[in-house]
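Lab notebook, bench 4. Still working through the backlog of constructs that have no structural model yet. Next entry is a single chain of 291 residues. Request: give me the C-alpha cells for it.
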Amino acid sequence: MDFEQLRIFLVLAEERTFLGAANRLATSRSRVRRKLDQLELDAGTPLVAREQSGLVLTPAGEALSQRGHALLESADFLISHVRDIGSEPTGCLKIALPFAPPPIGWNETCRAALDRFPKLRIEFIFAESPTQLLPTRAELALTFDDQPPEGCSLLDLGEFPLALVVSDTYVEAHGTPTSIDALADHRVALWRVPDRSVERIPLRSGRLLALEPTLISSDPMGLHEMVVRGECIGYLPALPQLDDPALKTLFAQEIAGTVHEWLAVPRVHADVPRVRQFVEISQLQASIPAG
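Model written out:
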C-alpha cells in the first residue's frame, strides 16, 4: 500500500461513488478504480462492495477508513518534522496550554524567541489536557502533571505552593471560617491537581482535610475569577498570574502542598530548531529568580 492509494481510498469512502471521488480528486474514474484494485490486492481482501445505491464499505474497508486518516496525519507530520531539522527556527510553533492567558513568564520567553527569530510564529492551543495534543497537534505543552507523557521529557518551570484564598466580598456575605475544619460550612472551589485527590487538601500536620467542594475545575484562571467576585473560597496554585492583592490567604500555617509547572517536550520534536530554541530560552527564563 502506498499513500496515494490510501488518500484516494479515503476520498472514495466519503463520496461512495467513483464519479464523486474522481471529480473531487480532479482525476478520472478509471484511475480511482485502478488504485482501489491495487489497494485491495495489497490488502488481500475486498474493501468496498458495489450496490445499486452506490459503494458500501466492507468491514475491512471500515477499519481502513477509520484508521487511515490518523496514518496520513502521522505521515504528513513526519515529513514536516524531517524537513524542519537542520534549518533555522521558522514556521509555526504550536504550544498547548491548560488555561488562558499564557503564564506571565512566557511573555518574555515568547518575545525573546520572536525577536531573535523573525521567521518564527507561535500559536497557543488551549485544552483541558494539553499533553494529549502531543506530538501531532502541538509540539510543546504546559502541564502540572509530574508524570511525563510517553515519549516526552519535562522541563521544570517552577514550583508553586497551593493556598486557600478569599475575597472581602465573600467574607462580608458569609463570614470568615473560624478554623480549618469550619471550611465544611463554606462554599469552597477546588482546583483539580493532576493525579491527586480533588476532595482532600494536605495539611502541614500530615492530615488530609476532606471537603465536599462546591465546584471542581482544572482551570485555575476561572476559579480565580470566581473567588475575586466573592462566589466562593478557592484552593488554587499561587501562580504569578494569580497574584491579586485583593485576595487574602486563609490558614497559611496549616495548608500544605505544592505543584510544579512543567514544559512537556516530545523527544520526536527535540531537534526541531523552533522547539529546541524555545526550550533553551524557557530554561534560561526558569533559572532567573522570581522578583
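Notes after review: The radius of gyration is 26 Å. The mean pLDDT is 86. Flag for follow-up if needed.
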